[in-house]
Description:
Blueprint: H1 6-26, E1 35-39, E2 44-46, E3 74-76, E4 78-87, H2 88-92, H3 99-118, H4 120-124, E5 141-144, E6 153-156, E7 159-161, E8 170-173, E9 182-195, H5 201-206, E10 208-221, E11 227-231, H6 236-247, E12 263-265, H7 271-279, E13 282-285, E14 288-291, E15 299-301
Parallel strand pairs: 1-9, 7-11, 12-15
Antiparallel strand pairs: 2-3, 4-10, 5-6, 8-11, 8-12, 9-10, 13-14
Helix pairs in contact: 1-3
Amino acid sequence: MAIVTPALLKSLFTGYKTCFQKGLGMAHPQYNKIATVIQSSTASNTYGWLGQWPGFREWVGDRVIKNMEAHSYQILNKAFESTVAVKRTHIEDDNLGIYAPMMEEMGRATAVFPDELVFPLLKAGFNSECYDGQYFFDADHPVNRQMDGQGEDISVSNVLIDASYKGDAWYLLDTSRALKPLIYQERKKPQFIRMTQEEDEAVFMRGEYRYGVDLRCNVGFGFWQMAYGVKAPLTLDNLWTVYSHMRQFKADGGRPLGIKPKMLVVPTALEKQATQLLERELFVEGSDPVSNELKGKFELVVPDYL
């Protein structure tokens, strides 16, 4: 029977932390493929600059400064935690083998947790507002005819919907820039911590030592111009339609944005279809084989949490 001492508890914490770090290394998160990571130092961040797409104009007279107050898109940080309780009796009885894989899994889950927040945001984009007050995927995003935003607004769409389509949505994204379509806001990085003091309530009342992770973060929408949501069949024609439309996106004043969609994001239900569209050399039109002009054109991402 093991005697529970501070030295033993310290040794256990070191071992569990090693298991946690091993679990972190087992994971392959994908959130940073579609989300810009923004460091936060307060309870929330306000992204007024989302209304200003970076670009240049000829400098004649005073600089043109757009009003940032019109776009007060705010992301509030949230706190998250994951905890494992280790029973004192298990330590006394040397029955600790069950906990090492649990700590590894906690590490793996911590690494992919941003994926669990970021990728569902795409699905939510059909009914959640972004910085301009419209849904992220919407048919009526306002783009002004004048660079200073003082002219008439025209409506621009970044959504394709076929009313007869009953399948899952898919998404085409431009992820080639420093600013990506979504935002992962990080206030506090994950920390592996313990509660193992004898005076801790859980130890005193229930004979449990607690090990866990806490972090603070949240997610939100970036530039809608860099994403297109589609509720229509995943076909070559629809891919070309969406790609061509995104290539024509313009900033206020009519300046081309140079959007270059690079990534196709699909749920697991569409993985086979998407893989065939992007990797097959030939397709059959009528009775004749034709080259697949989209082969290798987009990176395919099939996230676990979409």
